[in-house]
Design a protein that fits this description.
Layout: H1 7-28, E1 35-37, E2 44-46, H2 49-62, H3 64-67, H4 82-87, H5 95-103, H6 135-152
Antiparallel strand pairs: 1-2
Length: about 160
């Protein structure tokens, strides 16, 4: 007698496959792909598979509501793609600069604090999701942001044309 699979069980099985395959992606990435700019002097760091997974999870939980796919929902003209990050003042195209931004965000021209508008550890009292994030967490989130263009190409931060 042949057993039929209900649509719910089929869906749950597919979700498990997708979830597990995405988790293993971090392990499958080679060191070259996981090499990310650390600071403005040109130093780099190789993210561990654990940092890659953790960064993705934390980004989705803490930042994904406004920055899904690297776009900025509150300003679709300014995303998290490498060009936009490098043209900011100060440039935010390395881990240390992004960690600094997540602690104390400033406007794109760097002239004004936007801590009351953008989640940060400085404004954790009004952005509860930031309260429990450690420096290691901010490092992993920053690594995720800088890794995504290597994985998704121009789709990361590409805006409405992709999402």
């Amino acid at each position: 007698m042949k057993k039929q699979i209900s649509p719910l069980h089929l869906f749950l099985g597919l979700c498990t496959v997708v979830c597990c395959s995405n988790t293993s992606l971090a392990i499958d990435l080679d060191e070259t792909t996981r090499t990310i700019p650390l600071d403005s002097s040109g130093s780099t760091v190789i993210l561990t598979p654990e940092q890659v997974k953790r960064g993705k999870r934390l980004f989705n939980a803490s930042c994904g509501q406004c920055h899904v796919g690297g776009v900025t929902k509150t300003n679709p003209n300014l995303g998290l793609e490498p060009d936009a990050l490098s043209l900011a003042t100060p440039p935010r195209d390395n881990i240390n600069a992004l960690v600094d931004y997540l602690k104390n965000p400033t406007s794109y021209d760097g002239l004004e604090s936007i801590a009351e508008l953008h989640p940060s550890t400085k404004s954790a009292d009004i952005f509860p999701k930031m309260r429990s994030l450690s420096d290691e967490d901010l490092f992993a989130i920053s690594g995720h942001i800088l890794l995504q263009p290597k994985l998704g190409g121009e789709k990361w931060g590409g805006g409405k044309i992709y999402y």
